[in-house]
Amino acid sequence: MQHPPSARHHTGHPTACAPEDILVAVPTLNEAAHIDACLASLIGDDPFMAGICVVVADGGSQDGTVARVDALQSRYPALRRIDNPRRLQSAAINTVVATMAEPGHKILVRCDAHAIYPPGYVRAVAESLAARPEAASLATPMDATGEGCFQRAAAWIVDTPLGSGGAAHRGGGRSGWVDHGHHAGFRLNWFRRVGGYDESFSHNEDAEYDHRLGLAGGKVWLDADIRLDYSMRATPAALWRQYWNYGRGRARTVLKHRMRPRARQMIPVINLLGMMAGLILAPLTPVTLLWPLAYLAALLVVSLVGAVRLRGPCGLWAGPVLGIMHNAWGAGFLTLLTASDARRRARPEQEGTPT
Description:
The chain is an alpha/beta fold. The protein has twelve helices and eleven strands.
């Protein structure tokens, strides 16, 4: 999942949570343009935050991020910086817990360097989690945003069931127990119990973690009162890469745990296979073109509805955006699944080769 650029105001929770209970982790990699504003929004002049250890785990930034964080330590005495040699966000969070968590820390709040948070965000996450002793972690909904035509259309369609498959953390407005959501807070005893993030995952590490958490009996609470805005990719190519990686990450999770994917997750894969089969068989059986033509017609309808909803031609991008998300995700899923199967088939032959 990518960094959200801003966060909405949220409501607080009455359950008290002391600063010494909380540890904050902020992974960074070349975030010099954003880290000052992010840390100012998280810490600022809030007396509550003055007692909370905020740890920036840097993955080898080359743009001056490290120097900016070091300079900010004079303004924020509780701010710390550590190195994250593995570079990935999953490794950054694990490293913060392994090296910076003290015995008194009970709650970990995960924040993103590309984000601007409203006052009281860390406290709200910690207190929401503290208010539910049965919760192992806390998730928050994300609301898509965008400035240009492409981003605005993408932001609209991704928060609909067509774009998100009905995922509760994608623009959802109802709090409740979920299998997976955008990671905001963790109860540290549970984080350690399940082994933290799998650092071999560059994408989908959050869903993979939540799967292991569920197997161990942990529960995830989605607090719809604490919301994050996130900016959609600005170009078709960037959106394709993002969803390609999402698909590959989901396939890795399926393979690792031998899971049966949910029906909503397999729809893009089945649709992509159906369209490919229709195009390949068309010279022999033209009727097979009905599948890809029907899908294109559906995307056209989405574009027209998008134009109405966004009150202008920018909404016409909604159909192409949806097509990119569906097919990039499906292609990423299939390519990793196929490559993994090829490696598995080749392994017995390699193992049986005389030396």
